[in-house]
Specification:
It is a single chain. With 81 residues, the protein is mostly helical. It has one domain: Serine Threonine Protein Phosphatase 5, Tetratricopeptide repeat, CATH 1.25.40.20. Helices cover 54% and strands 0% of the residues. The protein is built from 6 helices and no strands. The radius of gyration is 11 Å and the shape is globular.
Length: 81
């Protein structure tokens, strides 16, 4: 989660090569994709989706990556996945 929160594209790619769990969650039930969408890290959103991250996994109403991305106008990235 740190890699996503920091916006480090390089670190995210390294961890994905090591087959990190795309659906791992923080103590607040956030996935890496949800964090990336919430922070507006479009490149990381794209990378996670290409690796198979679930784009409808949320933890509260209004908090799926799709719903968050819509707020940040990056819904088109999620729809292309």
């Amino acid at each position: 989660m740190f890699a996503t929160q920091s916006g480090s594209e390089k670190l995210v790619n390294v961890l994905l090569k090591e087959q990190s769990d795309l659906e791992a969650r923080t103590t607040n039930r956030e996935t890496a994709l949800l964090i990336a969408a919430n922070e507006g890290f479009t490149f990381i959103v794209h990378v996670l989706l290409n690796k198979g991250a679930e784009c409808v996994a949320g933890y509260l109403p209004g908090s799926t990556p799709q719903e968050v991305a819509f707020k940040f106008l990056i819904i088109d990235i999620l729809q292309r996945a």
